[in-house]
Amino acid sequence: MEKQHSYSQVKGVSTGTTILAVKFNGGVIIGSDSRASMGESYVSSKTINKLIQVHDRIFCCIAGSLADAQAVTKMAKFQLSFHSIQMESPPLVKAAASIMRELCYSNKEELQAGFITAGWDRKKGPQIYVVSLGGMLLSQPFTIGGSGSTYIYGYVDAKFKPDMSLEEAKQFSINALALAMGRDNVSGGVVHLVVITEPGVKHIVVPGDKLPKFHDE
Amino acid sequence: MSEEMFPEPEWLSEEVKTGTTIIAVTFDGGVVLGSDSRVSAGESVVNRVMNKLSPLHDKIYCALSGSAADAQTIAEIVNYQLDVHSIEVEDDPLVCSAATLVKNISYKYKEELSAHLIVAGWDRKKGGQVYATLNGLLSRQPFAIGGSGSFYIHGFVDAEYRKNMTKRESQEFVVNALTLAMGRDGSSGGVAYVVTIDKGGAEEKCILGNELPRFFDQ
């Protein structure tokens, strides 16, 4: 984690951040905070949206250098739309994740970004894939990332249950993000959530004053 | 860099740290302290069953983290100073006094030492108390966590702590928090030691690895 921070001062704008994705009964929720920081003391944006739509039912969220992440997602979006025209059907979530992985792995020396890809497809339903910094691809029922995620490992390990309902999953995500934002000084702002299910996609924003409050010493 | 046939084992040259997880919680009538049991030197585990909860007096304990040698030395010195103090005042010492003695050493030798002790106990004047003494600061708190493993459970303890828990609930809270931290932190592990201090005295318990609660594991 220390290496990432010093690197980000060289690179410029970084999303010191908290991102997560959770699978529930019938879909996935992908969520993030909204703060972009430069170095560790300047907030360059309070309301950035880190949830990028790469296809109708596939979203990505980015952690790490913002510039790298935007470049990679733009390229992935293009490749994915081309791929789905060739296949004449909506792309698989795994295809989207593989494209990100290819880009991350082949450029692993220059890039400093990790991704969570989540979405719904007809073949396997809701899925979450993690592409880590070096280019590893892993499928998981839920995942967290970004600098703020260290503070909520304990919480998500304790509270996650497979096959939650939409309401439970939403509450789980909002709580986890609020807790991380409360402890990590480079995460903050509002909570952005995107709920992806077969019928469609819904974007929910929870402003700072509506976030749950926990015991404060 | 020359290649050696039999390179010197890491634990001979690396500083011994209790990269660790420690936690102390007040409940209605006392405190519960908990710690893991792993001591590492670089990447090797040199002791997997160390008890990091050290008694400073009958009803005052401290939890050690950071450099193992520094933390143990501070605890021994304060143990001695508290004994002298309690003879002088002809009474059991206050938790606040113990914490202040720890703080004095941590602050005076701030540059040389790297240890964080959490002091917790019960006294007649204020009941159960928990003091954090990080780097020479003295702060009384309803609960405190420390060590490398504590980063992973900040969210969990923020969400789950409630004021006025019973003794049972506090013990469960401590064991859950330790288990979650040991599950994610490479420098924490082994068994969990739990000490419960109230009016009647201190009760030590050791919970083995296979008796710890299980959480969702893919």
In short:
The complex is a heterodimer of chains A (217) and B (218). Chain A has 217 residues and is an alpha+beta fold.
Structural class of the secondary structure composition of chain B? alpha+beta
Instruction: From the alpha carbons, calculate the radius of gyration of chain B and give it in angstroms.
Output: 18 Å
Low-confidence stretches of chain A: 1-12
End-to-end distance of chain B: 41 Å
Order of helices and strands of chain A: HEEEEEEEHHEEEEHHEE
Strand adjacency order, main sheet of chain B: 12-2-3-13-14
Number of strands of chain A: 13
Chain-averaged pLDDT of chain A: 85
The proportion of residues in beta strands of chain B is: 25-35%
Average pLDDT number of chain B: 89
Reported for the largest beta sheet of chain A, the result is: 8 strands, antiparallel
**What's the Cα radius of gyration of chain A?**
16 Å
Beginning-to-end CA distance, first to last residue of chain A = 26 Å
Helix content of chain A: 25-40%
Oligomeric state of the chains?
Answer: heterodimer
Unreliable stretches of chain B, pLDDT < 50, 5 or more residues?
A: none
Main sheet summary of chain B = 5 strands, antiparallel
Tally the beta strands of chain B.
Answer: 14
Structural class of chain A: alpha+beta
The most extensive interface between chains reads: A-B, 25 and 25 residues
**Count of individual helical segments of chain B:** 5
Describe this structure in words.
Chain A: Keywords: Cytoplasm, Hydrolase, Nucleus, Protease, Proteasome, Threonine protease. Chain A: It is found in: Cytoplasm; Nucleus. Chain A: Component of the proteasome complex. The complex is a heterodimer of chains A (217) and B (218). By secondary structure, chain A is an alpha+beta fold. Chain A has five helices and 13 strands. In chain A, strands 1, 4, 5, 6, 7, 8, 9 and 10 form an eight-stranded antiparallel β-sheet that branches. In chain A, a hairpin with a 3-residue loop joins strand 4 (36-38) and strand 5. In chain A, helix 2 (66-87) packs across helix 3 (93-106). The longest helix of chain A is centred in the middle third of the chain and has 22 residues, at 66-87. The relative contact order of chain A is 0.21. In chain B, the strands form three sheets. In chain B, strands 12-2-3-13-14 form a five-stranded antiparallel β-sheet, with helices on one face. In chain B, strands 6-7-9-10-11 form a five-stranded antiparallel β-sheet, covered by helices on one side. In chain B, strands 5-4-1-8 form a four-stranded antiparallel β-sheet. Chain B contains five helices and 14 strands. With 218 residues, chain B is α+β, with helices and mostly antiparallel strands. In chain B, helix 2 (68-89) packs across helix 3 (95-108). In chain B, strand 10 (127-132) and strand 11 (139-141) form a beta hairpin.
